[in-house]
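If I may wish for something, please sit down with the protein I am sending here and say whether tokens and residues agree:
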Amino acid sequence: MARAQFNAEVGANREFVRQANRFTDRVTPHSTSPPGGGPDEQGRWPLEAGRYRLIWCRACPWAHRARIVRGLLGLEDVISLGTVDPIRDERGWRFALDPDGFDPVLGIGFLSEAYLATDPDYSGRVTVPALVDTVTQRVVTNDYPQLTLDLSTEWRRFHAPDAPELYPVELRPQMDALMAEIHRDVNNGVYRCGFATSQRAYDEAYEALFARLDVLSERLAGQRYLMGDSITEADVRLFTTLVRFDVAYHGHFKCNRQKLTEMPVLWAYARDLFATPGFGETVDFDHIKRHYYATHRGINPTGIVPVGPDTSGWTTPHGRG
């Protein structure tokens, strides 16, 4: 039987079943807690500039979303940023990029320390992004889909004057449905391909992935962005998977019907976003490749990181807009 990358996240048909998000509190202006206080009885933390720290990894697509949305909304001076190393071992995400290996604000060497400070019995996989309270050093949330939506809705008081509407009220029903499809078949779909430990599970994930990419390509052939003429949260979520497709998912996760560069509409769309301020400058192809190929030893036992592919095409003209 094939070896699973994460033994606790395997279903009955040897398919990958992503673990639930453990910490789901929220920062909101509706909290009844005083400034500096903890969560109220509904798990709502007070909205305060400078209090919370977003922990991300340049390699992780889920964390990359939060980094992009934070920047697009102008929240860089409101929510501080901590970056973990792309190489994760049995101890989890570490702050090896910082001097002496400790986050300069939280003073911890591993993100797991904040997880255990919040729940001493936590035994699941430590994940990014995580929003950590710098007062108590507790994890407020690792609920990545809600976190980015909250940055658009609950943090509005601190948005830059020219911040985009990433989650427009009038589009939310259609956006929610579209983002659910993208999550199931694309964002998580590449992992369902890569972490499958049966042929059946892999085949099903592979077919769903490329069927969805075909549908998205048809949609984007007639409009610049997923919801029309403006960038929304849906575009951020799709971008962070597409930008990793050729450097990681095509080979490492066996998502190899085509490379992104061989899907003309999606390739132009991804380059359009890459050229948009707030997107391309947050991408680190070296971190992405080192994380996937050196960390997933169940898939790549040698830990060898490929030299290619050539990523210079990302800055070529996209012809959209």
Summary: Residues 199-221 form the longest helix (23 residues). Residues 170-315 form a domain with the Glutathione S-transferase Yfyf (Class Pi); Chain A, domain 2 fold (CATH 1.20.1050.10). The mean pLDDT is 95. The CA atoms of residues 274 and 280 lie 4 Å apart.
